[in-house]
Amino acid sequence: MNRFLSIAGEAASEVREVSDFIHSHPETGYREFLAAEKLKGLLKHWGFRVEENLCGLETAFKASAWTAASSSVPAFCFMAEYDALAGLGHGCGHNLIAAAALFGAYAAKRVIEEDGIPARICCLGTPAEEGLGGKVKLVEGGAFRDLSAGVIAHPLDHTTPDFGCLSVARAYIDFYGRASHAAFAPEKGINALDALTAFYNGILEWKKTITERQRVHGIFTKGGDAANIIPDHTQAFFYVRAGNEADLAQMKRRLETLAAAAAAKTGCRCAVNWASAYKNMVFNKSLNDEYIRAWRDSGVTLRETDGTEGRGSTDTGDVSHVIPCAHCYFGITNGVSMPLHTAEFREAAGTDAAFEAAMKTGSILARICLRYFTEHSFREAVHRDFELAEK
Ligand SMILES: [Zn+2]
Ligand SMILES: [Zn+2]
What confidence tens digit (pLDDT) does each residue in 30-50 have? Predict the structure, then answer.
C-alpha cells in the first residue's frame, strides 16, 4: 500500500484538478464533452494510448497501456463515469468515479511498468449512466471484446463491496380512446383516462404480490388535455425491476397483460413501448472478496455481501454479463447518512474528504488489478465465478 501512497502523492494534484473540474462543470449523458476532454488529456499525458469516439459515442473513450504486445495477455479495465443529473449537477458524485478510475489505472500502469509485469490496463470512459445506458451501447458495440475483467467504484455514504443491482426495463404505456364533449356528449367518447386508472389499479394489486427482489413503479405523464374533453390519449411511464433477466421478462409480460386488460375493460387501445433496459449485476465473489481484503489491510472492516442486497440498477450490470466485474462503493460523507441524487450529496462530492476517499479507492482497485495479473489462482477464481454465476 505504501507504494500506492507515494504514487498518489505524485498524482493527487493532477487527479484533483480533473475531479474538481468535472464537479464544477456538470454535463448530462452523452454531452460530457468537457469531462471527456479533461480525462483523455491527463491519460495521454501519463502515456496511455487513447481511442476516441469509442463505438461511435463522442464522449466515450478507451485509454490503454500495456507491457506486452501479445493480445493473449489479459486486459483489466477501470471504468469511469462522468455524467451529471439534469438540474442537480453531480448529485450522484460521478466526478469521483472518474477520479478513482483515473488514479487506479495510473497506479496500476506505474507498477506493471516498473516491475515488468506482462499486462494490459485500460481506463474506459463510459458516458451516460443516468438512464441513457452508455455501457449498454458500449457492450453492443463490442468495446469489451478485448477486455478480460473490470471494476468500478461509486461514491456513497458508506464503503461497501458490491451489493448487487436489479435488472430494470422502462416502458411508456399509451392508451388511446375517443374525444368528446365531457358534458354535452360524454357517451360519444371513449375515455383513455379510465383505461389509465384501471391500469394503475391493476399495478396496485400486483404490487401486493411481488417478491422482495421485484419492483414496479411509475408515474402518469399525460392525463388528458382539458377537463371538459373526454381524454383520447393518456400515458404512463413505468419501471419494472427483478433479480435476473428471466424474472424481468415475466414482469414485462405481466405489465403488458395489465395494460391490455385495462384497455379492453374501457374500450380503449393501448401500446406498450419498452424504452430502455439495464441487466442485473452478475456477482463476482472473488473480485468482491479482494475489495474487502484490500480495505481490511488498510484498517477498514467491511461487511460481506452476496450480491442480492441491492435494489437499484446500473448499466454496469450489462458489462457484468460479458466480463467478470465488480461494482463497489466508497463512503464520502464521514459516516453521515445521505441519499444519492440530492443537493447535499452533490456538495459532499466536492470536498477534500471525498477526493481522498476516491484516491484511496483508486489504490484499492489498482491492487485488485495487480493481483489479477500476478496471481494465476486469483485470476482463475475470478473467471470461474463468472462462468458459474447465474446470469
Ligand atoms: Zn445516479
Ligand atoms: Zn451514480
Answer: 999 999 999 999 999 999 999
Q: According to CATH, where is 3.30.70.360 located in the chain?
A: 167-278
pLDDT value of position 73:
84
Q: Cα(349)–Cα(104) distance, rounded to whole angstroms? A: 18
pLDDT in tens, 151-165: 999 999 999 999 999
Q: How far is the CA of 272 from the centre of ligand 2 (A)?
A: 28
Q: Give the residue with greater pLDDT, 296 vs 70.
A: 296
Beta-carbon neighbours within 5 Å of ion ligand 2: 92
The CATH architecture one would assign to domain 2-165+281-388 is 3-Layer(aba) Sandwich (3.40)
Q: Which amino acid is at 1?
A: M
Cα of 24 vs centre of ligand 1, distance in Å, is 17
- From the centroid of its chain, how far is CA 284? 16
Q: Which CATH number fits domain 167-278: 3.40.1010.20, 2.40.50.140, 3.30.420.10, 3.30.70.360?
A: 3.30.70.360
Query: Left (φ > 0), alpha (ψ -120 to 50) or beta: where does 30 sit?
Result: left
CA of 83 to the centre of ligand 1 (A): 9
- CATH 3.40.630.10, the chain: domain bounds: 2-165+281-388
Alpha-carbon distance of 269 to 187, in angstroms, equals 17
- Coil, strand or helix at 241: strand
Number of other CB atoms surrounding residue 237 within 10 Å: 14
SS3 43: helix
Residues 83 and 60 sit within 8 Å (Cβ to Cβ): no
Rounded to the nearest angstrom, the distance between the alpha carbon of 92 and the centre of ligand 2 is: 5
